[in-house]
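for the writeup, i need someone to sanity check this before i put it in the appendix. the sequnce is what the collaborator sent (i think, or maybe the updated version? ugh). structure was predicted straight from it, no edits. if anything looks off just tell me and ill rerun, i have time this weekend
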Amino acid sequence: MDDPVSPEQQEQVTERLRAYGATFREFSRRFAAWLGLHSTDAEALIEILAAEEHGATLSPARLSERIGLSQPATTALLNRLEQAGHVMRTREHSDRRVVTLRSSPEVHTLADEFFGPLGEQVGAVMARYSSTQLQQFDTFLTDLLSAMHTQLDQPLDPPPRAKS
């Protein structure tokens, strides 16, 4: 490490990460409104699209974990997305009981139209940094996510009782 991080710098970076998360959620809400969906439905749709973009697929159970909904609530959400023509449930696995979620070509076009300008701006920002800098940032984010997941995996103690 070159030099120690000051508490002020740590706080500034933490605040920027919080603001990034809030801004990402706002894009998700606007995408939902643009499509005429509830924000949770759009969040699910974005998870499905992101998985596909990375060459992966999601099952309803995995989607449920990713968006923090119960299995029955996720089923209702998927029914709405399927009725709107945004997703399909397929049985591609050799075990026909396994359901895979796929986004429709139409929703890919809509997502590209909505998020395309942002993607161009993000690409322009990233182009200002070297590959080494981006790799360092990627390592930082990976380590940060690992720390957050470790904390999330810890059981929660009940909150202390208020003293009267």
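The beta strands are 87-90, 100-103. The chain has a mean pLDDT of 93.
thx in advance!!
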